[in-house]
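Researcher: I'm preparing a figure for a lab meeting and need a structural model of a single chain. I don't have an experimental structure, so a prediction will have to do for now. The sequence is pasted below. Please return the structure as tokens so I can convert it later.
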Amino acid sequence: TPESAPAGPVGRRSDTVAAIITTKRFSHMPLRLFTLLLLVLCSLLSGCRDDDPQAALQNAVQQLQDNLEHKRSSAVLEQLHEQFRAQQQFDREWAKRTMLMLFMRHKNVHVLALSKDSQLDPTFHDKGYTQAQIALTGAEGLIPDSAAQYQVKLEWWLHDGEWQLARLDWE
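Model: Understood. Here is the structure written out token by token.
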């Protein structure tokens, strides 16, 4: 009988069969685990992608706010379209100089969005708009020493898959 087979280098036959089954089961287990982890990772990453243009636009607005608050002028400039215009007259160089002045004057800069609404253009898929009421504060310490409230209108253009700020107007 297989159970009474002599023990040798292989051992009893039932032990050998069990070992083969166990080895087969566990040799595929890491591959299965790896595949499962890979699938979970891919689904998480694809869930974070901005396939939804509306979500991507809202993310760009939030990124602009974060970049301003963290005084990352180069990141803000990357978000500005090469044909950027503010108040129909100021260009990217003006934006750069204005940020430099603001960031040098104030140790802390805060952009508080009191309200904001972003919409895609119903006709042109590569344009989006944001209207916001913001409070811009600057401070040397914890207490703001300057504050102003603005109603802003932003026009975004989709360029190479990224929303870039093309027009900025305020009241």
